[in-house]
Amino acid sequence: MSKKPKLIYLLFSLVLILSLSLGGCVYVQEPSPAPSPPPPDISAPTSPEWTLPPRISEHPPLPNFTSVVAIVKPSVVAINTEVVTYDIFNRPSTEQGSGSGWIIDEDGHIVTNNHVIAGARSITVTLSDESALSAGVVGADAFSDIAVLKVENTDLPPLAIGDSTELNIGEWALAIGNALGMGISAKEGIISRLGVSVPVAAGQTMHDLIETSAAINPGNSGGPLVNMAGEVIGITSAKWAAVGVEGLGYAISSDTARPIIEELIQKGYVVRPWLGVVVGTVNEWLIDRYELAVAQGAFVTQVAPGSPADKAEIKAGDVIVSWNETEITSADDLIEAIHDSQIGQTVDIAFWRGNEKYTTTATLAETPPP
After folding, report:
1. pLDDT tens figures, 19-46
2. Model confidence over 200-212: pLDDT tens digits?
3. Cα–Cα distances in Å, from 180 out to 216, 220, 280, 306?
4. Would you please indicate which residues are annotated as catalytic (active-site) residues?
5. Coil, strand or helix: which one is 73?
6. Which end of the chain is flanked by fewer CB atoms within 10 Å, N or C?
């Protein structure tokens, strides 16, 4: 082979190799980004003559709680209870409980929370002098979570009840009680919020509560929340317990508690308008279980025989959705509507039964004695 064909062959091979090596490569030029708009002009004029405000030379003194504790502590009691519970085999066992209370008069009446003494077989009250007395229940109200006990002792040091309507956010307050069942102790805080509503159980929301940053622990329930004059402004009742949540304690305001305490001492129970139903809020489980035609309302689980609801032909399984043309979306709505009504008042009620909607009227009666 001559040199010329070899040269042509080499040139051809070189061109072929370059073609193959470049054939699989695609070059894409990235487009230039669109220019961003200029930032808005948020500058403000300077003030060449401005200086810091003068420093306050005198600060208000911090509160001294010693005198408040001296007034209140002798009137705060520790409450210990025994409650009989049953296991899944119906075998009884006795459980111990603890709470707090405070003396309201010289005759031995003591105010506490209903949940402190609910179901108790025996109640023991320990006074500030360490004397232990057996206590009986004068009256208890689950809805407001207030109960009144009585011990056979006289000349006890009562606490004065203050006016919770005069409170302001930021005021100092003191919670005194049998925290953790370890004896009477005091915790300081401020009034954080007023007129608070907190759901405490299914179908039960407590209203007009005082929120405080004073530490509230198990055993504090039923003890007093007092102002700097040593007056009871609230009854310690609940604490918001959740991971990462601190300083959310609640007390029943004295303005709410005062008439309830009076009725419990006078009658043993609180008189309210009564429909005679036990209800729960409609949820997905109830909808599936009973094939309900509505997605919200107050689901009737029980109707008391001879009650206004029974006379109005409301039955278990019905869903109440309207009260005097006001929409009812939950059990709380219905309970609040009943309590906002009057004894003897006739109300219009709309409810669903299966796939049919009905209306009826009911005349509210007085709460029957327990």
Report:
1. 444 444 443 444 555 667 777 778 888 8
2. 665 567 888 999 9
3. 10, 7, 33, 44
4. 115, 145, 221
5. helix
6. N
